[in-house]
Amino acid sequence: MKLIDGKMTAAAIKEEIKAEVDQMIASGMKRPHLAAVLVGHDGGSEAYVKNKVIACEKCGFKSSLIRMEADTSEEQLLACIKQLNEDDDVDGFIVQLPLPKHIDEQHVINTIDYRKDVDGIHPMNAGRMALGLPSFISATPLGIITLLQRYNIPTSGKKCVVLGRSNIVGKPMAQLMLQKQHGDATVTICHSHSKTLKEECRQADIIIAAIGRPNFVTADMVKEGAVVIDVGTTRVEDPESKSGYRLNGDVKFDEVAPKCEYITPVPGGVGPMTICSLMKNTLAAAKGEFYAKS
Ligand code: L34
Q1: Residue 198 bears catalytic tag
Q2: What's the pLDDT tens digit per position in 133-192?
Q3: Answer CATH for 26-133 from 3.40.140.80, 3.40.50.880, 2.60.120.1440, 3.40.50.10860
Q4: If you measure from the C-alpha of residue 107 to the centroid of ligand 1, how many angstroms do you get, rounded to a whole number?
Q5: Which of 62, 86, 115, 237 is deepest in the core (most CB within 10 A)?
Q6: CB pairs under 8 A, 24+ apart, for 150-157?
Q7: How many angstroms is it from 48 CA to the middle of ligand 1?
Protein backbone atom coordinates (compact mmCIF):
# COMPACT_ATOMS: atom_id res chain seq x y z
CA MET A 1 0.00 0.00 0.00
CA LYS A 2 1.27 3.43 -0.94
CA LEU A 3 -0.10 6.60 0.57
CA ILE A 4 -0.84 9.48 -1.82
CA ASP A 5 0.43 12.62 -0.11
CA GLY A 6 -1.85 15.46 -1.18
CA LYS A 7 -0.36 17.90 1.26
CA MET A 8 3.16 17.50 -0.09
CA THR A 9 2.05 17.51 -3.73
CA ALA A 10 -0.02 20.66 -3.17
CA ALA A 11 2.94 22.37 -1.48
CA ALA A 12 5.19 21.58 -4.46
CA ILE A 13 2.61 22.93 -6.93
CA LYS A 14 2.14 26.12 -4.91
CA GLU A 15 5.90 26.68 -5.10
CA GLU A 16 5.77 26.28 -8.88
CA ILE A 17 2.94 28.82 -9.00
CA LYS A 18 4.88 31.22 -6.78
CA ALA A 19 7.88 31.04 -9.11
CA GLU A 20 5.66 31.89 -12.06
CA VAL A 21 4.01 34.76 -10.19
CA ASP A 22 7.44 36.17 -9.29
CA GLN A 23 8.31 36.18 -13.00
CA MET A 24 5.01 37.82 -13.90
CA ILE A 25 5.60 40.59 -11.37
CA ALA A 26 9.20 41.03 -12.60
CA SER A 27 7.90 41.50 -16.14
CA GLY A 28 5.53 44.22 -14.96
CA MET A 29 2.27 42.29 -14.74
CA LYS A 30 -0.27 42.78 -12.00
CA ARG A 31 -0.41 40.41 -9.01
CA PRO A 32 -3.11 37.71 -9.46
CA HIS A 33 -6.09 38.44 -7.21
CA LEU A 34 -8.58 35.88 -5.88
CA ALA A 35 -11.67 36.93 -3.93
CA ALA A 36 -13.77 34.56 -1.81
CA VAL A 37 -17.30 35.17 -0.59
CA LEU A 38 -18.24 33.40 2.64
CA VAL A 39 -21.88 33.57 3.72
CA GLY A 40 -22.58 32.53 7.32
CA HIS A 41 -20.31 30.73 9.78
CA ASP A 42 -20.32 27.04 8.87
CA GLY A 43 -17.30 25.54 10.65
CA GLY A 44 -16.07 23.55 7.66
CA SER A 45 -16.44 26.46 5.23
CA GLU A 46 -14.60 28.77 7.64
CA ALA A 47 -11.67 26.35 7.77
CA TYR A 48 -11.57 25.78 3.98
CA VAL A 49 -11.74 29.47 3.14
CA LYS A 50 -9.02 30.23 5.68
CA ASN A 51 -6.83 27.61 3.98
CA LYS A 52 -7.56 29.28 0.63
CA VAL A 53 -6.43 32.67 1.93
CA ILE A 54 -3.22 31.11 3.30
CA ALA A 55 -2.61 29.39 -0.05
CA CYS A 56 -2.95 32.75 -1.83
CA GLU A 57 -0.14 34.11 0.36
CA LYS A 58 2.03 31.07 -0.45
CA CYS A 59 1.47 31.63 -4.18
CA GLY A 60 2.11 35.37 -4.05
CA PHE A 61 -1.51 36.22 -4.89
CA LYS A 62 -3.54 39.05 -3.49
CA SER A 63 -6.67 37.75 -1.74
CA SER A 64 -9.89 39.34 -0.53
CA LEU A 65 -12.29 37.64 1.85
CA ILE A 66 -15.82 39.00 1.76
CA ARG A 67 -17.87 37.89 4.75
CA MET A 68 -21.63 38.10 4.81
CA GLU A 69 -23.96 37.12 7.64
CA ALA A 70 -26.11 33.98 7.46
CA ASP A 71 -29.27 36.09 7.11
CA THR A 72 -27.93 37.92 4.03
CA SER A 73 -30.62 38.14 1.37
CA GLU A 74 -30.15 36.68 -2.10
CA GLU A 75 -30.32 40.23 -3.50
CA GLN A 76 -27.47 41.37 -1.26
CA LEU A 77 -25.35 38.42 -2.36
CA LEU A 78 -26.15 39.08 -6.02
CA ALA A 79 -25.13 42.72 -5.57
CA CYS A 80 -21.81 41.57 -4.12
CA ILE A 81 -21.25 39.24 -7.09
CA LYS A 82 -22.04 42.07 -9.50
CA GLN A 83 -19.34 44.19 -7.86
CA LEU A 84 -16.79 41.38 -8.13
CA ASN A 85 -17.77 40.80 -11.77
CA GLU A 86 -17.10 44.46 -12.50
CA ASP A 87 -13.94 44.89 -10.41
CA ASP A 88 -11.05 44.87 -12.89
CA ASP A 89 -8.51 44.09 -10.19
CA VAL A 90 -10.24 40.78 -9.31
CA ASP A 91 -9.08 38.01 -11.66
CA GLY A 92 -11.27 35.30 -10.19
CA PHE A 93 -13.63 34.70 -7.29
CA ILE A 94 -15.52 31.95 -5.57
CA VAL A 95 -18.71 31.77 -3.54
CA GLN A 96 -18.06 29.12 -0.90
CA LEU A 97 -20.80 26.47 -0.85
CA PRO A 98 -23.11 25.46 0.70
CA LEU A 99 -25.16 28.67 0.93
CA PRO A 100 -27.91 29.21 3.53
CA LYS A 101 -31.16 27.46 2.57
CA HIS A 102 -33.11 30.63 1.70
CA ILE A 103 -30.69 31.39 -1.16
CA ASP A 104 -31.07 29.75 -4.59
CA GLU A 105 -27.58 28.35 -5.13
CA GLN A 106 -27.87 27.70 -8.86
CA HIS A 107 -29.24 31.18 -9.49
CA VAL A 108 -26.28 32.68 -7.64
CA ILE A 109 -23.80 30.58 -9.63
CA ASN A 110 -25.45 31.61 -12.91
CA THR A 111 -24.73 35.28 -12.18
CA ILE A 112 -20.96 34.81 -11.77
CA ASP A 113 -19.03 36.09 -14.80
CA TYR A 114 -17.82 32.77 -16.26
CA ARG A 115 -14.47 34.39 -17.11
CA LYS A 116 -13.91 34.82 -13.35
CA ASP A 117 -15.45 31.49 -12.32
CA VAL A 118 -12.27 29.87 -10.99
CA ASP A 119 -14.44 27.22 -9.29
CA GLY A 120 -15.52 26.00 -12.72
CA ILE A 121 -19.15 25.68 -11.66
CA HIS A 122 -20.86 28.19 -13.97
CA PRO A 123 -22.87 26.38 -16.69
CA MET A 124 -20.50 27.81 -19.32
CA ASN A 125 -17.45 26.19 -17.70
CA ALA A 126 -19.24 22.99 -16.66
CA GLY A 127 -20.57 22.63 -20.22
CA ARG A 128 -17.29 23.42 -21.94
CA MET A 129 -15.47 21.03 -19.65
CA ALA A 130 -17.96 18.26 -20.50
CA LEU A 131 -17.25 18.88 -24.20
CA GLY A 132 -13.48 18.77 -23.60
CA LEU A 133 -13.08 22.48 -24.47
CA PRO A 134 -10.69 24.78 -22.59
CA SER A 135 -12.37 25.99 -19.38
CA PHE A 136 -11.96 26.36 -15.66
CA ILE A 137 -12.29 22.89 -14.13
CA SER A 138 -13.89 22.37 -10.73
CA ALA A 139 -11.09 22.38 -8.16
CA THR A 140 -11.63 19.01 -6.45
CA PRO A 141 -11.81 16.90 -9.66
CA LEU A 142 -8.86 18.82 -11.12
CA GLY A 143 -6.89 18.15 -7.93
CA ILE A 144 -7.62 14.42 -8.16
CA ILE A 145 -6.59 14.22 -11.82
CA THR A 146 -3.37 16.05 -10.91
CA LEU A 147 -2.64 13.59 -8.07
CA LEU A 148 -3.15 10.58 -10.36
CA GLN A 149 -0.79 12.15 -12.92
CA ARG A 150 1.91 13.12 -10.44
CA TYR A 151 1.90 9.61 -8.95
CA ASN A 152 2.01 8.09 -12.45
CA ILE A 153 -1.07 6.02 -11.71
CA PRO A 154 -2.32 4.50 -14.97
CA THR A 155 -5.98 5.24 -15.70
CA SER A 156 -6.35 4.60 -19.44
CA GLY A 157 -8.75 1.72 -20.07
CA LYS A 158 -9.22 1.09 -16.33
CA LYS A 159 -12.57 0.63 -14.65
CA CYS A 160 -13.31 3.68 -12.51
CA VAL A 161 -16.27 3.98 -10.16
CA VAL A 162 -17.25 7.48 -9.01
CA LEU A 163 -19.46 7.48 -5.90
CA GLY A 164 -21.60 10.61 -5.83
CA ARG A 165 -23.21 12.84 -8.46
CA SER A 166 -22.86 16.40 -7.16
CA ASN A 167 -22.35 19.20 -9.67
CA ILE A 168 -19.13 20.27 -7.95
CA VAL A 169 -17.41 16.84 -7.61
CA GLY A 170 -19.16 13.67 -8.85
CA LYS A 171 -20.33 14.81 -12.28
CA PRO A 172 -17.19 16.72 -13.34
CA MET A 173 -15.01 13.93 -11.89
CA ALA A 174 -16.76 11.31 -14.01
CA GLN A 175 -16.44 13.54 -17.10
CA LEU A 176 -12.70 14.00 -16.59
CA MET A 177 -12.06 10.32 -15.96
CA LEU A 178 -13.96 9.58 -19.16
CA GLN A 179 -12.17 12.05 -21.42
CA LYS A 180 -9.38 10.78 -23.60
CA GLN A 181 -7.00 13.62 -22.68
CA HIS A 182 -7.49 13.05 -18.93
CA GLY A 183 -8.54 9.70 -17.41
CA ASP A 184 -9.44 7.78 -20.60
CA ALA A 185 -11.14 5.26 -18.27
CA THR A 186 -14.36 3.24 -18.35
CA VAL A 187 -16.50 5.19 -15.92
CA THR A 188 -19.47 4.19 -13.78
CA ILE A 189 -21.25 6.68 -11.53
CA CYS A 190 -23.03 5.30 -8.46
CA HIS A 191 -25.19 7.20 -5.98
CA SER A 192 -27.53 6.73 -3.04
CA HIS A 193 -30.10 4.85 -5.16
CA SER A 194 -27.74 2.58 -7.12
CA LYS A 195 -28.86 -1.03 -6.64
CA THR A 196 -25.54 -2.58 -7.65
CA LEU A 197 -23.21 -0.11 -5.91
CA LYS A 198 -21.23 -2.71 -3.97
CA GLU A 199 -20.81 -4.99 -6.98
CA GLU A 200 -19.66 -2.08 -9.15
CA CYS A 201 -17.09 -1.06 -6.53
CA ARG A 202 -15.77 -4.61 -6.19
CA GLN A 203 -14.91 -4.62 -9.89
CA ALA A 204 -13.30 -1.18 -9.89
CA ASP A 205 -9.60 -0.52 -10.49
CA ILE A 206 -10.12 3.03 -9.22
CA ILE A 207 -12.77 4.17 -6.70
CA ILE A 208 -13.37 7.88 -6.18
CA ALA A 209 -15.61 8.30 -3.13
CA ALA A 210 -17.50 11.61 -2.94
CA ILE A 211 -20.78 10.87 -1.22
CA GLY A 212 -20.19 12.64 2.07
CA ARG A 213 -21.03 9.65 4.24
CA PRO A 214 -18.29 8.80 6.74
CA ASN A 215 -16.81 5.30 6.47
CA PHE A 216 -19.16 4.35 3.61
CA VAL A 217 -16.56 2.40 1.62
CA THR A 218 -15.66 -0.78 3.52
CA ALA A 219 -13.05 -3.46 2.80
CA ASP A 220 -15.60 -5.88 1.30
CA MET A 221 -16.29 -3.30 -1.46
CA VAL A 222 -12.68 -2.97 -2.58
CA LYS A 223 -10.75 -5.24 -4.89
CA GLU A 224 -7.18 -6.22 -4.00
CA GLY A 225 -4.76 -3.74 -5.62
CA ALA A 226 -7.33 -1.00 -6.22
CA VAL A 227 -6.63 2.74 -6.14
CA VAL A 228 -8.94 4.54 -3.68
CA ILE A 229 -9.41 8.31 -3.66
CA ASP A 230 -11.33 9.67 -0.66
CA VAL A 231 -13.05 13.03 -1.21
CA GLY A 232 -15.08 12.98 2.00
CA THR A 233 -14.42 15.53 4.72
CA THR A 234 -17.26 15.17 7.20
CA ARG A 235 -16.69 16.79 10.58
CA VAL A 236 -17.56 14.42 13.39
CA GLU A 237 -17.45 15.29 17.06
CA ASP A 238 -14.41 13.98 18.87
CA PRO A 239 -14.06 14.98 22.53
CA GLU A 240 -10.49 13.68 22.53
CA SER A 241 -9.24 16.11 19.89
CA LYS A 242 -8.22 19.68 20.72
CA SER A 243 -10.74 21.27 18.34
CA GLY A 244 -13.57 19.00 19.56
CA TYR A 245 -14.00 17.42 16.13
CA ARG A 246 -12.12 15.39 13.60
CA LEU A 247 -12.40 14.94 9.85
CA ASN A 248 -13.81 11.69 8.59
CA GLY A 249 -13.44 10.45 5.04
CA ASP A 250 -15.94 8.43 3.01
CA VAL A 251 -13.59 5.45 3.25
CA LYS A 252 -13.06 3.21 6.27
CA PHE A 253 -9.35 3.79 5.97
CA ASP A 254 -7.96 1.26 8.46
CA GLU A 255 -9.58 -1.76 6.84
CA VAL A 256 -9.49 -0.56 3.22
CA ALA A 257 -5.88 0.70 3.06
CA PRO A 258 -4.18 -2.75 3.34
CA LYS A 259 -6.01 -3.89 0.18
CA CYS A 260 -5.04 -0.85 -1.91
CA GLU A 261 -2.16 -0.20 -4.23
CA TYR A 262 -2.67 3.52 -3.59
CA ILE A 263 -4.97 5.40 -1.21
CA THR A 264 -5.44 9.04 -0.15
CA PRO A 265 -5.64 9.91 3.55
CA VAL A 266 -8.11 12.34 5.18
CA PRO A 267 -6.92 14.92 6.06
CA GLY A 268 -3.88 15.52 3.86
CA GLY A 269 -5.21 13.93 0.68
CA VAL A 270 -7.72 15.54 -1.67
CA GLY A 271 -8.45 18.64 0.50
CA PRO A 272 -5.09 20.39 -0.03
CA MET A 273 -5.23 19.49 -3.75
CA THR A 274 -8.64 21.19 -4.06
CA ILE A 275 -7.05 24.35 -2.78
CA CYS A 276 -3.97 24.21 -4.99
CA SER A 277 -6.17 23.59 -8.05
CA LEU A 278 -8.09 26.74 -7.18
CA MET A 279 -4.74 28.53 -7.17
CA LYS A 280 -3.93 27.05 -10.61
CA ASN A 281 -7.26 28.29 -11.95
CA THR A 282 -6.68 31.73 -10.50
CA LEU A 283 -3.28 31.94 -12.17
CA ALA A 284 -4.89 30.88 -15.47
CA ALA A 285 -7.56 33.58 -15.01
CA ALA A 286 -4.91 36.23 -14.33
CA LYS A 287 -3.10 35.20 -17.52
CA GLY A 288 -6.35 35.20 -19.54
CA GLU A 289 -5.61 31.59 -20.46
CA PHE A 290 -9.10 30.33 -21.29
CA TYR A 291 -11.00 33.53 -22.01
CA ALA A 292 -9.55 36.80 -23.30
CA LYS A 293 -9.52 39.56 -20.70
CA SER A 294 -12.00 42.32 -21.44
N1 L34 B 1 -17.58 27.07 -4.08
N2 L34 B 1 -17.51 25.49 -2.40
C3 L34 B 1 -16.95 26.03 -3.49
N4 L34 B 1 -15.78 25.60 -4.01
C5 L34 B 1 -15.13 24.57 -3.45
O6 L34 B 1 -14.01 24.09 -3.99
C7 L34 B 1 -15.66 23.98 -2.28
N8 L34 B 1 -15.03 22.97 -1.60
C9 L34 B 1 -15.85 21.90 -0.99
C10 L34 B 1 -16.92 22.59 -0.16
N11 L34 B 1 -17.48 23.79 -0.77
C12 L34 B 1 -16.89 24.44 -1.80
C13 L34 B 1 -13.90 23.12 -0.88
O14 L34 B 1 -13.18 24.11 -0.97
C15 L34 B 1 -14.83 21.16 -0.16
N16 L34 B 1 -13.67 22.03 -0.10
C17 L34 B 1 -12.54 21.80 0.70
C18 L34 B 1 -11.43 22.63 0.67
C19 L34 B 1 -10.34 22.40 1.48
C20 L34 B 1 -10.31 21.35 2.33
C21 L34 B 1 -11.39 20.49 2.37
C22 L34 B 1 -12.50 20.71 1.57
C23 L34 B 1 -9.13 21.17 3.22
O24 L34 B 1 -8.32 22.07 3.36
N25 L34 B 1 -8.99 20.03 3.89
C26 L34 B 1 -7.89 19.75 4.77
C27 L34 B 1 -8.28 19.83 6.24
C28 L34 B 1 -9.04 21.05 6.62
C29 L34 B 1 -9.55 21.05 8.06
O30 L34 B 1 -8.74 20.84 8.98
O31 L34 B 1 -10.76 21.24 8.27
C32 L34 B 1 -7.42 18.33 4.46
O33 L34 B 1 -6.27 18.04 4.73
O34 L34 B 1 -8.22 17.53 3.96
Answers
A1: no
A2: 999 999 999 999 999 999 999 999 999 999 999 999 999 999 999 999 999 999 999 999
A3: 3.40.50.10860
A4: 22
A5: 115
A6: 150/9, 151/2, 151/4, 151/262, 153/206, 153/227, 153/262, 155/183, 155/184, 155/185, 155/206, 156/183, 156/184, 156/185, 157/184, 157/185, 157/186
A7: 5
